[in-house]
Design brief:
Blueprint lengths: L1 H8 L6 H12 L5 H14 L3 H13 L14 E5 L7 H11 L4 E5 L9 H5 L11 H11 L1 E5 L6 H11 L7 H14 L4 E8 L8 H17 L3 E8 L7 E2 L1 H12 L5 H17 L6 H13 L2 H12 L18 E6 L6 E6 L1 H11 L15 E4 L6 E2 L4 E7 L2 H12 L2 E4 L11 E4 L1
Parallel strand pairs: 1-4, 2-3, 4-5
Antiparallel strand pairs: 5-13, 6-9, 7-11, 8-10, 8-12, 9-11
Helix pairs in contact: 1-3, 2-4, 4-9, 4-10, 5-12, 5-14, 9-10, 12-13, 15-16
The structure holds uracil.
């Protein structure tokens, strides 16, 4: 191991067999934390070639089980977002894709820090369970074409162990390590067509577009190297996606979006990601045709019906799809008005600052074992490019108490950059990076 660390320190490429020895030796307990930590730091400083990154991903996958879905009518698809603020796209996308006949097996995570997690959001639906064992998962996907569950511990055990070590050795933020960690989970779960939503901006893991592009390129290279169809889209996370930030509020917004009453940016991103999936999976001849299919599946109610099936099958109250009043509601709901003498334009709403306000209300976790209040959060009522009159609300705070609302209001005001001059905001463009 000393020699392997030394060679990576000098910037050399390690062979697939050597990477396999590191990963399997670490999982078996034969290589100590301090040596793997030193190698991870060398990777951070020296990087990895695409071949090495693919070999590392394979070694991580080989540490556990992999899922095969030969018994399904079509190979399953998947989507991954690198995480953001107010990103509830998965909840809108899965019913649409399943309604289009594509099996969707989604293994999601929980929120940590300023980014939310799909599992937490779903648990705000009364009764919903994200814990299905593998036989139950298979049965459900065969029956209704989709499932959203927690990551199985039997898949990629090396990833959990390596991630915990990266967390305490300042080695999380390296493209080959992030890319292999994410792609190992996607590949082990068995999807054949995968669309990646790689976020950049203040609310994202990658602050700059260049870093996001490099991460996207690396993940696509891994997926294609493993024989899967993979495409990546870059999307801005300067402002929150949609309006709602906070678990039950985001579920409500996702449901409203499937009814055609949601925010435009959330729907536009969902349509783009979904159209790439339909095209990659070979069920649409062009992106335009795929977009028309998605619009139709929303308009004719089939996506909402699929969401009812999904919620019911996982123990939840499917009535929420038609009555979001069944979701938990915060006891204190209060506007955050514009305090000014004259009208203002909102230049920008900083995603990270909104996330910090939501975190202060208890919508997110600072530490892994924090308990969430699923009812609380923030609605951003005036995003960049909106004109606001004095006294009109910039946002709405949903809090557990008046004191919590006071504290969040202070943080939330910081999120808004205001301007005397008119501000135009162009709609986001979603660029397919590769694939
Ligand atoms: N998400 C992951 O799953 N792994 C990383 O390394 C970073 C983000």
């Amino acid at each position: 191991m000393v020699e392997l660390i030394e060679r990576k320190k000098r910037g050399e490429e390690l062979a697939p067999e050597e990477l396999r020895r590191i990963v399997s030796g670490y999982v078996a307990g034969d290589i100590p934390d301090y040596q793997v930590g030193a190698w991870l730091m060398a990777v951070c400083l020296r990087g990895m070639s695409d071949g090495e990154t693919l070999a590392l991903t394979r070694a991580i996958i080989e540490s556990g089980e992999t899922l095969e879905w030969d018994d399904l009518p079509r190979p399953p698809v998947d989507k991954h977002s690198t995480g953001g603020v107010g990103d509830k796209t998965t909840l809108v996308l899965i019913p649409l894709m399943a309604a289009a006949g594509l099996p969707f097996v989604k293994m999601s995570g929980r929120g940590l820090g300023h980014t939310g997690g799909t599992l937490d959001k779903l648990e705000s639906i009364p009764g919903f369970s994200v814990d299905l064992d593998l036989p139950a998962l298979r049965e459900q996907v065969r029956r209704i074409g989709c499932a959203i569950v927690g990551q199985s511990r039997r898949l990629v055990p090396a990833d959990g162990k390596l991630y915990a070590l990266r967390d305490v050795t300042a080695t999380v933020n390296a493209v080959p390590l992030i890319a292999s960690s994410i792609m190992s989970k996607k590949l082990a779960a068995g999807a054949q067509a995968i669309v990646l939503d790689v976020k950049y901006g203040s609310g994202a893991f990658m602050e700059s577009e260049e870093e996001a592009r490099e991460l996207a390129r690396t993940m696509v290279a891994i997926g294609q190297g493993a024989g899967r169809k993979v495409r990546a889209v870059l999307s801005s996370m300067e402002e929150p996606l949609g309006i709602a930030v906070g678990n039950a509020l985001e579920v409500r917004e996702a449901i409203e979006t499937l009814h055609g009453r949601g925010p435009d940016d959330l729907w536009a991103l969902t349509v783009q990601l979904g159209a790439h999936i339909l095209e990659l999976a070979g069920v649409a001849a062009s992106r335009e045709e795929a977009q028309r299919t998605i619009e139709r599946l929303r308009a004719d109610g089939s996506a909402r019906e699929k969401l009812r099936e999904l919620v019911h099958s996982q123990g939840g109250d499917a009535g929420v799809v038609d009555d979001t009043g069944l979701l938990p509601a915060a006891p204190v709901v209060r506007p955050l008005p514009l305090e000014a003498e004259a009208p203002k334009w909102v230049a920008r709403v900083d995603a990270r600052a909104v996330a910090d306000a939501a975190l202060s209300l208890g919508a997110g976790r600072r530490r892994k074992d924090d308990v969430l209040d699923l009812s609380v959060g923030v609605l951003v009522l005036a995003k960049g490019g909106t004109r606001v009159e004095p006294g009109e609300p910039l946002a709405e705070i949903h809090a557990g108490s008046e004191a919590a609302a006071d504290a969040a209001a202070g943080l939330l005001r910081e999120a808004f950059s205001l301007s005397e001059e008119r501000v135009e905001r162009a709609p986001q463009s979603y660029e397919a990076v590769l694939g």
